[in-house]
């Protein structure tokens, strides 16, 4: 009997002999990457048992790649591709720990997933997502990623480099897309044994898909077919954006895949390599995210030229050039050191001598400061100090003028010469000498703040340099809110900044009797409470002046406006409203059902027809599939016509089973437009069941338990007093200005038993007992809930 390895090699040889050449693709073989190779690194000697599972890849050889290039691998084997380790089980003497990792399950066969989650991606330790390949004497070194992995080596300056290969410890990159069929694996680490025993067990194969890859690329012609196939892709543009590759550089790309069995030690896997040089078309393609290089593209090749004197940075602190006379900043990742105009750097005060005796020179924080000495004039002789004032003695001492005032002397010829620029003095010239007499009670100022008299009820202003304090009318000073009571219940009385404020309450009307509160609306109850009017809206009431105001668009009600100005819409017994004959099905084979021009269903008996024994009819709102058609209540057209059923968009959903109850939270758009609802007059139903299964949850919230706040209808029941609500804690339905209808609901212990991951049917129904089943409106969707952490089910 031929051994497993020999048989696989024979199959590979036959595949190479019989394959038909495909443009841009090359059949994979063990020599593509140059391994196995005898070196001191044990990884280079690892043999890839079954490179034939990697049937073909594209492109081949050395490629100059324009933006948009995709690295493609076609896989085929007698088992489905292993996409990764979805679960790791660690056994110790104290117990077993199970860790589930995010994993792209195969929803359809064939399927497809963009940026698929591949489970555990660690390369070392108990939680590694690797196979069981061992190197003698090198534990935890030769095990390879179970997920399809890409390894990158920049060979721009070293064309023969393999530094980024798996054999050299490179970093694996999961695929950007997968098509066809695949499955997961479970890795078990048994630490009750020494050394620990590690096994990888693949999931069961899905149904074989042959070479049907669904929305993937067709496989090149001439490839063998062993039943299961897949296409794996990596996008060159994504690798460039992620900084893994730079246009104009050359790269060696190594990739490897695992097949779906573990009948050979370490697992069967295949590898391949291709050389790629990303091609640029514009300078933007060459952005190396280095602010200190000038990026350009010439003839498809990138250039990144260093900018002279440029320094990289992340914060301004990294740009400090130790010069106090520059402003240091980090702009777009590069330092800028801008000279401060007029600034002189220094280390001591001696560096700052400006040869001016009338300045004080100092070195402060590395910057020169030359401060003018008030009233100082530089000089060389006494004549330099003549100030033209006969009332001063002028001299030059040590290069500085000294002007000594003659006590009490000020020369003048007129009173104008004695102006001291003080608005609070009277200026005069008497006997050739100035006199400046203070004006009693006058206060000088430069700004209004100089005039504060500590009285909040005066306007304090500075006019022409003199203070003015004008009383504010009306103004009431205070020290506490109680000082400000204006005896008006419709104002808020406060004391702020020592001044009273009486702010009117929006919508408030003061009163002494109920008669003061009449708002002329028959749909409100008017009352005077504690001096303010209350106008409480009467539930389900509509005000009117004529019968035409009360038209509810329902041909099966009698509309009237009573003497109190309130609409009444009385249901007509036995009448069903309609827009077409499809609304009028009465499930009676012996009647002809039509919709009259007035919008009312007409059921005309068929002569000679005998009605068969009636099948059970669906009762809308009892949470039971009465007619046995697999559809309960508002999932059934008998309770919600197709014309009144809208497509729901489930924005978010969380389900966490807990014993006989489930923690539930849903957020959805019931309809983008056209859905008209009024939970104040209609019971609201929420139904959830697995696709093709029986109902898992059914709740009814009576209209009487909803309240309205602006555009929102709200239900709250934290104590679960409403038994039919299925222990929901609350629900909110909001009518948006754009015509859409949105719903939120939640419950900590909703009456939903142990839901499972998969597709769930979620339906929301609105039912009015007065209008009948034909007027019901519904919103529904079939949504996939995926398994999350700690047993949660999550969508999207």
How is this structure best described in words?
This protein is an all-beta fold and 796 residues long. The chain contains two helices and 46 strands. Strands 35, 36, 37, 38, 39, 40, 41, 42, 43, 44, 45 and 46 form a twelve-stranded mixed sheet that branches. The protein is flat and about 135 Å long. The two termini are 51 Å apart. Mean pLDDT is 86; it is low at 1-24.
How would you characterize the largest beta sheet? 12 strands, mixed
Number of strands: 46
Helix/strand-derived class? mainly beta
- Name the shape in a single word: flat
What is the tally of helical segments?
2
- Spatial extent as radius of gyration: 44 Å
Query: What fraction strand?
Result: 35-45%
Helix proportion range: under 10%
- Name the poorly predicted regions: 1-24
Tell me the distance between the termini. Answer: 51 Å
Average pLDDT for all residues: 86
